[in-house]
Amino acid sequence: MINVQDLMKTYNDVKALNGLSFQAHDGEITGLLGPNGAGKTTCLRSLYGLIQPDSGSVEVDGLTPKTQALDVRRRIGIFPDKFGLHERLTPREHIRYIAQLHGLKGEVLDTQVERVIAELNMADIVDRRTQGFSQGQRMKVALAQAIVHQPKNLILDEPSRGLDVMSTRILRELMFGLREQGRCILFSSHVMQEVAALCDRVVIMVKGQVVANDTPAALCEQTGEASFEDAFVQLIGTDEGIMA
Amino acid sequence: MSAALFTVWLKELKDALRDKRSLMAAMSYAFFGPMLMAVAFFAVVKEATSESDVKVHIQGQEYAPELVSFLQQKGIVATAKEEADSGIELTIPRDYQSLLASGKMVSIVLRADYSERKNSSSRQRVSSALREYNQTIASARLTLRGISPEVMYAVVTEKQDTATKESRAAVIMGTVMVFVLMAVFFSGMNVAIDTSAGERERNSLEFLLAQPVRVFDLVAGKALAASTFAVLGSLLTLAMIPMVFLFVPLEKLGIDITFSLGQQLVLVLVLVPLALLASGLQLFVSFMAKSFKEAQTYISFVMFAPMTIVFVLEFSRFTHWVLDYLPVTSQHQVLLGSINGEPVGLFPIVVGALSTLVLAWLLLIAVQLRLRSEKAVFGL
């Protein structure tokens, strides 16, 4: 459960977040959709406490990152905006490292690492060094790192960028699986088809503000447009910076 | 030590050990430093111990065959004028034998360019050999006349060399110890850069900072990994020194370098806080950089500071009691003390270690503060 209330953040006169408010519920996939520069990444970074908002509040399962950053981070899995891998380490070592930083050890550590390797179907690459990995393989490593500690909340920043069809499918199925388990999933995207296909709820943000917040179907109804794309364009007032 | 810190330490070590560049940098430094010194000393020893013959041109050598053979015993060889590379020319008068026989003074001309520094030792050798020959003959004459030759020696100097084997070794080893200190600063450098600027360059910094770990644990783990390399590098340098000097005939200079294993271990222990300080400084600098290369540039500037201190102290032989307690200089004093037979006391060693650790800790705190700033992390 993620609750964002009236978030403001300014960088040198640029208002990255301008009174952003939304909620992402457990057992739902919430999509944060907006054009480039709408403040999506800033919003997600403030969720895990790497950016301190100027005002407003963030709560993850009732905890605020400002004062309880470590507790919040234990409850979330992060698929970051940029995920660099250590070329000289194998995926198994990557996953174990993050799991250990989350405090997993001993038998639990081993079983969780094995579970996530099986879940993401990555047994064939898990003991190779990550140097020269394809984008899809890199994504699997990053995803495994995000979910190895079985977080209650999963935050993904543009997870599907640069992925081929198969990798996108794996990602989608994983997200559906996690939703079944009642976890809260929040992901940002500027790709509409993806949002329309995946999300239970869409939060459309422009210039650091929420302009719409509902199910994809309800948004179409609200705008009177047949397709989600047209509804979106009408909501943000332009189609600049959005991929169909 | 928290579990997270330990995890970061191990992971960074594993990563660094697989990085051939870091490994090579650390090891080659430790290897080539002492090696270079050995080569230099080899030249010094050779220069100081081997006395080559002095070639002089002697005009009229047929008049004084005994003198010529005396000179030859002293390593002064008569050659043709062109081959006399010392540029020294001796002229023996035609009436040498008759003057000698009648007990009169013989004048021998020593002709050379006295402004030439290079051959000054050759000139001295020739004139002292002539003086010696003079004394031999003069003594013989006095004895013949029934006078003890001792009347000619009113005051005699007697040379007593106070330089012990150890103190002569200390001068040379002092220079070697500078290399040990430099090994501490250079061996861990690549690792420090890779875990900081490298982490940023490969875009893994944000994800790491978003983990439920105290930033200090992250920074300290990285610093420990780099200092592990620094300590290993200095250990290797210390181990290399006696090995390399096996091949240099230092005993010809009367120098004796012995280093017990225990002594080496103590020195390594003394260097551990310094390694932490070096790594802390390197992390502090390279976390400011956006890329590996940028960090390398900054660091090579910053590393000048401690190195300059060490070099200045080493060559100026400046001493002050405060130096025993300050970071960098304290370790330098301990290293020097271990070889010149005046070991530094336990109290300064401990205080020096503590002051070094405090400075290292402050640097890590500063790094941590930087990493808490979103401006520094995201480059906003």
From TrEMBL, chain A:
Query: ABC transporter domain: from which residue to which, for each copy?
Result: 2-232
Which Gene3D superfamilies does the entry link to?
P-loop containing nucleotide triphosphate hydrolases
Keyword Aminoacyl-tRNA synthetase among record annotations: no
Q: Does the keyword Signal apply?
A: no
- What would be an example GO MF term here? ATP hydrolysis activity
Signal peptide extent: none
Highest taxon above the source species: Bacteria
Q: Return the InterPro entries for the record.
A: AAA+_ATPase, ABC_transporter-like_ATP-bd, ABC_transporter-like_CS, ABC_transporter_ATP-binding, P-loop_NTPase
UniProt keyword annotations, A-Z = ATP-binding, Nodulation, Nucleotide-binding, Transport
The family note in this entry says: Belongs to the ABC transporter superfamily.
Q: What is this protein called?
A: ABC transporter
**Origin organism lineage:** Bacteria, Pseudomonadati, Pseudomonadota, Gammaproteobacteria, Alteromonadales
Automatic annotation (TrEMBL), chain B:
Record's keyword annotation contains Nuclease: no
Q: Is Transmembrane helix among this UniProt entry's keywords?
A: yes
GO terms of molecular function: ABC-type transporter activity
Question: How is it placed in the membrane, per its record?
Answer: Multi-pass membrane protein
Compartments it resides in: Membrane
Q: Name one GO cellular component term.
A: membrane
> Which superkingdom?
Bacteria
Q: Where are the transmembrane segments?
A: 23-45, 169-193, 223-245, 265-285, 297-316, 345-367
Provide the ABC-2 type transporter transmembrane domain boundaries.
30-364
- Pfam families linked to this entry: ABC2_membrane_3
Q: Which UniProt keywords apply?
A: Membrane, Transmembrane, Transmembrane helix
What's the protein name?
ABC transporter permease
Organism encoding this protein:
Aliidiomarina taiwanensis
